[in-house]
Each structure stands twice: as C-alpha cells, then as structure tokens.
Amino acid sequence: MVKQESMLKATLPLFARFIVSNGLRTKHGVFEVTLETVDKALPVVTRNKGLRLVEGATGLLSPDLLQLTDPDTPLEKLTFLLAQLPQHGQLYLQGTVLLQPNFTQQDVDNRNVAYRHSGGDSRIDQFTFVATDRTNKGFVVDGRVWEEPVSFTIQVDQLDKTAPKITHLHSASQVGLLKNGCYGIYITSRVLKASDPDTEDDQIIFKISRGPQHGHLENTTGTGEFIHEKFSQKDLNSKTILYIINPSLEVNSDVMEFQIMDPTGNSAPPQILELKWSHIEWSQTEYEVCENVGLLPLEITRKGYSMDSAFVSVKVNPVSATVGKDFTVTPSKLIQFDPGMSAKMWNIAITYDGLEEDDEVFEVILNSPVNAVLGRKTKAAVKILDSKGGQCHRSYSLNQNKHNAWEKGIWRPLPPGSSSPTTSGSFHLERKLPSSTRLAVTRGESPWGFESMDLSRMRLRPRGNVRTIHPSSVYRNGTDIIYNYHGTVSLKLEDDSSSAHKQKAEVSVISWPQKTIQVAELPQADKVESTTDSHFPRQDQLPSFPKNCTLELRGLLYFEESFQKLYQCNGTAWKAWSPRTKEVEDKSCPAGWHHHSGYCHSLIMEQKHTWTAAAQACREQHLGSLVTVLTRQHMRWLWYISGRRPFWIGLNDQVHAGHWEWIGGEPVAFTNWRKLPRQHSKPGKNCVLVHRQGKWQAKDCRQGKPHNYICSRKL
C-alpha cells in the first residue's frame, strides 16, 4: 500500500512489500515504485516597490520591497537574474560587492542584499532582472507572463544641506497674571517661528545656548517642567512655552540666545530673543493733604517697555475716611496706559465740609494688571488733614520724618495770616521762574508735586501800596513754581531775602467782575483722569499757548499779554473767556451729576433696567431723559464715566422702523454703530446699547438683559 503523503515527496522511492503463496510454499517480495515531480507552476513577482534613499546612502532590499513566490519551488532556487546593473551605485551581497549577476529570494529574506548610492547629482537609478525557478521559462507580473526583464527603481533624494530659516522673530511682551500669582510671557509662533521644507515642525529644534538671566522657561504640558536645553517648533505652535518672570528682581527685560537645528545636524547662526515688560506702580506711597485742597491727583507710573497698551485696576480702602463724605472717586477704577504712555493721573476729590474733626486716612491699591507687572509701590496712603479755621497743620509723625516734604506729597497748608479758602476771588498764579513772563490763572485745581521753599522769603507786593501779601501755598509742577494767592490786585513778585539779589517779575492780574470763583469746587467728571500728553491739535488762529488744552487742564484760565485777552481751556481747545461764558459755567449740576456739553449727566448703576424701564426711570425719578450723544468727544467721555461698561442711551426707532431718533428730540448728528442696523430692524431691536469699546448695538427695548443707563438734563 502506498501512502498519499509519500507520493507527494518528489523523487523519493516508494516500497510495497507483498507475499506470494501457492498453499504449500510462500515467498516475500518487495515492489518498488519511483515518483518523479513535474514543475508546472511559474514564479510570481508579488512585490516590486522600489527603493528610496538620500544621496550617498545605503538601502536594504527587504522582502517588503522585492518578493518572488512559487508554490512548487524552494526559496533558494527562486532566482533574480540581473540583466542590467545599477548605473549610479552598486549592489552588495552579504556586505561585499555583488560579483555574480544574480541573487535568490532567500538572500532577500535573509536581508543580505543592499544598494549603495555612489553620490552625485543623480536622482533615479535602477537595475533590471528576470525571475526564474530554474525549471520553467518565464514569470508572472501583475497576472501576465513575462520573459523580458523588468525594472527595480531606486529613487535618490537630495541630501538636506540647509538649516531651518527664521520667519518670525519679535520681542515677546504680552505679560499675563497666572493662576499661581506669578507673571509670565507665552512664547508662541506669533513671536518666534522657523520653517524648513524638508523637516516637520516637531523636528525643528531650538537649542538654547544661553538661557534667560532674570527668569526661566517652563513647558506647560504635563508637570510644567523647566526647559534648559531645547524645545521644538511644535511646542511654539501649541503655546506651551512660558517664560516666568522672577518677581524679586526689579528688571524690565531679559534675553535668550538659541540656535535652530534639523535632524540631519544642519544649524543656523545663533539668534537672540528679547523679552520685555513694564512695571506699574504709584509714584509715591504717602500723601498728606489739606481738607480744602479740592482735587488730589495721584500719579501712576509705568517703567520699562511701554510700546503696548496696559491696564491696571484701582481699589480704594476707606480705612478711617468715608467715601462720599470725606472724598469722592471716579466710577471708573480701570486705568489704561496707551502705547508710549508712561504716566497716568487718577484724581480724587477731597470734600471740604468746614467742620472740625479728626484727620482721616484712606488707601488706594493697584491690582489686576493686564500686560504689565505690578511694582513694589502698589499701595498709597492718603491722610486728609482737618482744616481748622481755614488752616491745617502737618501731623506729628510727619515732622519726625527725615525726608523733605515734597518726597511724601505734602500739600502745604495756609500760613498764619492768610485768607481762608472761602475768600472771594481766589486764584492760583502759575509762573515759570526766572525766564518766563506768562501768567496762568487756574480754578481750584492743584497740580501735582511741589518744591519745599521758605514762604517768608517770597512776596507779592501790590503796586502803589506797601502792604505785603503772603502766598497761601507754594509748590512745583514740573519746571513751574506755583504760588497760590487770594485777592484781585495788580502785583509784582520779588524776593525779600536780599536787596542785592532781588528777583522781580511783573505780573498783572485781571480784575474780575463781581461774580466770585469757587475755590474748593468739586471736580467735574470730565476731568477725573488725565495724561501728560495732549491728543488734540493746537488752534492755528489762537496764540501759542504754553500747554495744549486737555481734559487735565479743563477750566484753566490763561492771560496772553500780546493779545491782552484771557483764554480758558474747555477740555479740547483754548477759547476766549468772557463774563458771559463764566455765567454759563457757574450754572452747576445737582450733586452726583456731571457737566458736559451743556448737559448734566448721571450714571445709574444701583438698579439695572431694560431700555424701556430705564427711559421711564430717567423721566419719573430723575426728571430727565436717557442721554443724547452729541459728538465723538462726548461719546468718549460717556464711555469713560461709565467705567467702560455697557449702558443704555436715548436713541431708538420705535416710532418708524429704520428712522432713528433721540428720545429728547435732538437731531441725530453723530452715530457710533458697531454694525449699521438694517433699514427694517428685527421686531423688538429698536433701542441702542453702548457696548464694547463704546460701539452701539441695536437691542430689544422691553426684554433681554438689564443694563446701567445714563440720564441727562439740559442746563
């Protein structure tokens, strides 16, 4: 019996044993069968993907790139007969140059066949072969029988010899206050970016050759580990690189040196990344002011990088003083530093009640900075000295201080014998010494800063009279020395200390009408915040004034000798002053209301309303109407006193859709739409809310979120 599995073995002899018997005798025999296999299957090229490598490199011909199969032929007999050898490289078998023009599939499977490019500018190379099982003629490729040679293609890529290039390199300056109370600057692709056509972003490496000196780098992913050596472009794209500012150092900049590299070792020249920021703080930390000072400006300074906008909030801690009784602050607690601005004034109105009481203290605190770091002077203390009998005296603790008076911001009290603040016709005489000959007369506003002087040595002597008038106060505003006098007489200024060194300067004070000028007038809301720079052009038809007219100088009177005219700053421009204009200004607004453009304004924040309810409240409770916005300057002022928070105004189209009109009946001469509403607005969106950045939006009059509102009355 012949087993089936034995018959499948090619060329193996098969034996069959048998017995022959005639009944008497038996004989054993063996029947031998020899099988010969017949190879009818052709070899099949199942993979011929080719090889890809960079110039000068060596690549392996692996089974996933080149494979020959045959069901009835062993691997060692499946042979690639080479018809053409590579032109720009050589084939290797087991590490040596291929001598015979063939190799087997077993050589390929054992990873013994390789190709090495010889270099040069060639981009394509190949060799051709014929596959055989050493029995049959021909082989199968893509289902067809071939007898001609086929190609194995070798693609040669140019070697990456260029380093990544910088496409963005800017100073990093956007400071953020982190959750842990630290300050940090994110380094992102908007600040630092490199590109390489041959390299992915995660392979573009920024190697740190010299790290920052005043802080450190962190990777915000995971545990926030420190970065000492390198980071990738992918990290920058993901916004995970953070520079932490060292709070113990009073510095405003840092630098980091780095070099860009790719995986092949190409590197660009070293580069420098600058990190810049600014510190915001009070210019002084202690003030002592007389109760009758009127307006107290507090200076906030920004040191360091100032080319970006920055913000800081002010918090008031009353301590022993009372808000509204002893002092009044503006509703806006957010201070904005525009690009290039390094100082900002935040004004507080000190209330003079004429009562004798103890000195009061309150604090102003800086917090919540945006795009800036808080300095060390984050808190300033203000002591209000009681003006007993029209005079006030410095506290005992101040007398023990070793510093000069102006270093603590002391507003000098009235000396003995001088007029009280209630004297009619009170003026501040501002004079630059010794060269200037111009005279400025101001209305109850005290400039900031002053110089300690011996008041007994300076005199204003009336012309034609021997009576000496003492100044009520002396202080310095930058380069100007300010003398505060009470009275309306023609005077000349001289130094009484020495007849040999008299310094005289003739000054003429205009005689005023019988109307008196208020001395301790509470500041209007449109001059609560000021800057040292003016954003308004000078009036060409007017004389050359020593300072541009700004909100800071609103109400300031200036006498021009060459024109023999008196001019007044209205907050934007110098205008000729006359008794008639003074009479109009003397019409004051009710307590808590603020004057601007001939109207009194009141910001209502206690109870927010819809537009309809706000209009009714203005009419019935405040005897006015929702505010009418007259000009762009008026809009800016309203946005400022609102604390930059949304509020309702009187514009609406409830009567005729698409026809907008003011609730007070004024003509629509100015608009400030964020997006111009359609001619036929949606039902209900017929009223206007001042929203982000002071832009107007049409909103539902009766429904929706309630907001603050501003009521106005015409003077």
From TrEMBL:
Coiled coil: none annotated. CDD domains: CLECT. GO terms for biological process: anatomical structure morphogenesis; cell adhesion; cell communication. SUPFAM superfamilies: C-type lectin-like, CalX-like. Keywords: Basement membrane, Calcium, Cell adhesion, Developmental protein, Disulfide bond, Extracellular matrix, Glycoprotein, Lectin, Metal-binding, Repeat, Secreted, Signal. InterPro entries: C-type_lectin-like, C-type_lectin-like/link_sf, CalX-like_sf, Calx_beta, CSPG_rpt, CTDL_fold, FRAS1_ECM. One of its GO terms (molecular function) is metal ion binding. GO terms for cellular component: basement membrane; membrane. Pfam families: Cadherin_3, Calx-beta, Lectin_C. It comes from the Eukaryota. CSPG repeats lie at residues 42-132, 168-261. Extracellular matrix protein that plays a role in epidermal differentiation and is required for epidermal adhesion during embryonic development. Interacts with FREM2. Belongs to the FRAS1 family. This is FRAS1-related extracellular matrix protein 1. It comes from Trichechus manatus latirostris (Florida manatee). The gene is FREM1.
